[in-house]
Amino acid sequence: MTAVTVTSARPSLFSGAALPRLIAGVAILAVWELVVSAFAPDFVARPSGIARAIPPVIASAPFLRAIGLTLWSVAEGLAIAVVLGTLIGLVMGRSELGDRVLRHYINAFNAMPMIVVLPVFSLWFGYTGAARLATVVFAAIFSVIVSVSDGARAVPRDFLEVGRSFRSGRVRMLFEIVLPAATPYFLAGVRLAAGRALIGAVVAEFFTAIDGLGYFILFNSRTFHHNEAFVAVIFLAGFGVGFDVLVNVSTRRFLPWYRRDEQTE
Amino acid sequence: MTLQPTVRQALARYAPFLISLALGLGAWEIVGRQAGAAFMAPLSETLVRLWELAQSGELGRQTLSSAALFGTGLALAFVVGMPLGLLLARVRLLREALDLYIMILYATPMVALIPFILSLMGFGFAPKVLVVFLFAVFSILYNTVEGARSIKPELLEVAHSYRSSEWALWRDVIVPYTLPFTMTGLRQAIGRALVGMVAAEFFLSSTGLGQLIMTANQNFDTAAVFAAILIIVAAGLALTRIGLALEQHFTRWRH
Questions:
Q1: Rg of chain A's alpha carbons, rounded to an integer?
Q2: Could you report the per-residue pLDDT of B190-220, keeping only the tens digit for each?
Q3: Confidence grade of residue B136 (pLDDT, cut at 50, 70, 90)
Q4: B40: phi then psi, degrees, rounded to nearest 5
Q5: Count of alpha carbons within 13 angstroms of residue B148, beta-carbon side
Q6: Is A199 on the interface with B (CB under 8 A)?
Q7: Which domain holds residue A212?
Q8: Which CATH number belongs to the domain containing residue A189 in this structure?
Q9: Chain B contacts of A6, Cβ < 8 Å?
Q10: A with B: how many residue pairs have Cβ under 8 Å apart?
Q11: Are the beta carbons of B51 and B219 closer than 8 angstroms?
């Protein structure tokens, strides 16, 4: 497998190379600051302005409410997508009939840029939080299905044969043998799904103009408060990176025997 | 004699697929007819509308416009992402200095930058290309750097001990080793660029298939919305296939 070669050479994120990283970071910020103050109008976001905007923004009620709304919707949608997606993925992975019946739909939806459903969802669910939730679920579920079904198919035969010789029931085998054995695939799917869910929530807020981090960015950038809007972008990036790191670190810490770097997107 | 089992096998193989396809399309038709016309269009109406749009030339024109946006953005992302990734592959200090930031940008939802791009660059082709580019480039860069990081030091050491020239090192070690990773990045980038294309067409100046969808949506012409979505899904499927084929072609030697 290729995954092993990738993993063995991967150094941890925060080890070594601290000084070059620091210098590069400072250089990037300095160039940004200089270019913007030399060429761009006053309202354009720059590091010093963003730094000044951070304390008032993160203390303001609208921002905190926006974060709460977006994150809650992402968590809710992700939970629905993970539960439903795992069930469908298990069925597709372990039943040939299930796979033949569902595969082409899943492939088509998975290849579809999720953003095109926004007009339809806003028609069906109205310009409400429900449209955002539906977009989040739609954005996230197919990565979970595809990963879990790949993982369920890759379960070693021996595991299943042992289960069968102990006369384990089909459903029980699915949840007690197949699912645990597919954990690395499952985690990779959830990691991908979380990123997509976040994007789904933001685009839904752009499209339907309902309150949340996406709308916070839209509103502030339209009223020329770019520094304030950028604080929200930093938080979004933080959530994206944070979840990635969380899954990676907890996999390495609690499931060190799992190595899965090959991703499907 | 041998024909019969083969036919039966083929039937057993494709029957579930065909039945599920028929059920899915049938459900679409029935639900579409039950629901209001503005709420959901049945399959038959969608296909009629698709035919009309194709006949009038509107569909072809808008698809071409979208394809131009997608192609330009993706090509730029490749032309920038791949050489930069290879450079980082070779220059260790540069890679160590920048990989954290590339990783952060890779994980950042680029869609959040669209409002800024809109207010800085306004309407036009360039800001939309920038959106597609930003969606795509970090997949290519991130995967290339990831590949570069995994080049075995032994390979470089052996090349060095045979006094391999810089050019030979690139040609025989670095590029062949990193290319499969770049191709994985390209496959991801294709999917992301498609999202970027639609996002740019929705949220910046409306053109292409995005405009077709938006206009139809405002006119409650749901059949046209579905028709355009069908085209985008077909394009998505075809592009995904191409991406996978490219990736497999370049990763053959690893297996």
A1: 22
A2: 999 999 999 999 999 888 999 999 999 888 8
A3: very high
A4: -160, 135
A5: 27
A6: yes
A7: 51-264
A8: 1.10.3720.10
A9: 146, 150
A10: 158
A11: no
